Amino acid sequence: MDALDHVADAAADLLTRVESILVRAGAPAGHPVWPLLRRVRALPAEAVGAVVALRPAALTAAASALAPLAEAYQLTGESAARPVAWTGPAADAFAAQARALAATDRELARSVRATIGYAEAVTGWAAQSRGALAQTLATVLTSAEAVTVRTARATPEAIGAAAAIAARVLATVAEAYDRAEALHEEWAGRLVEHPEQPCSPDGPASGANTTVRL
Amino acid sequence: MDDPRQLADRLESAATAISVGAAALDGVRADPGQLGEDAAGRPGEIGRVLHAQWSAALSARTREAGRAGARLVEAAAGLRRATQAYAAADGAAHDRLRRRGA
Fold this sequence. Notes:
Chain A is mainly α and 214 residues long. Chain A has helices spanning 3-25, 33-40, 44-52, 57-81, 89-141, 144-151, 156-188, and strands at 86-87, 211-212. In chain A, helix 1 (3-25) packs antiparallel against helix 3 and helix 1 (3-25) crosses helix 5 (89-141). The longest helix of chain A is centred in the middle third of the chain and has 53 residues, at 89-141. The relative contact order of chain A is 0.19. The model of chain A has no long low-confidence stretch (mean pLDDT 89). Chain B is rod-shaped, with a radius of gyration of 25 Å. At the A-B interface, helix 3, helix 4, helix 5 and helix 7 of A face helix 1 and helix 2 of B.
């Protein structure tokens, strides 16, 4: 459990009251909560639930699991590019094939490293979002508006306080998902599948005047 | 400098290493729910987008690994066939020379 798990539990009742007031009485006209509600398209408790649900442990595990594959590609690229004690037309044909293999595997190593980078970026985004929301909820829980929402019924003061709390929470969630959207766009071109490469079905052909160290 | 048989061995070992690396990805499939895909509104929508992006990236890496391993195995097999053909040609030439000398 992290700070958000603790503070979200503590804030659950307050957020339920906030939603109840806003659903029954609405928010003051022109209040900043309106554009935030349209932007997030969720009520505060739902929006908090979405961030609480972020558990990217599998992405962290994936970053570790992908590392050996990147290393295998890197080593393959280096192996295929090494010189071989073999000369002649068939050796030349194979050298071209080996160069292509080495280039492809270097590209594949880059794709795997990009995928590791993406997993780390999403994990970092989730951690940052959880931390920011925990801080907002902690601030809101000890605010004067929280006291008003807890003690007053649907008075104009309580409606204003509920709208203010909702706006703070939704602003934090909206910022988090703006970053997520930017992250998605930033990585879109770096995770694409490497196209299939044609491969000689017969391997190097035999040729005249060939020398091979056997 | 390696000879062709040693290179074929190295390519086969590399294919195995790539297969092992790809198999490790099966354990980290993109489990649904970890990015809040079921949430309401924009958070759920973006959670689904991120999950789809992650899932597609893992699938792409798995397919690439399958093709890369197959390419290396093919290259190693071609190299071995060529090496065996040269050895057979050398042996035949050696036999002919020996018969002429006899």
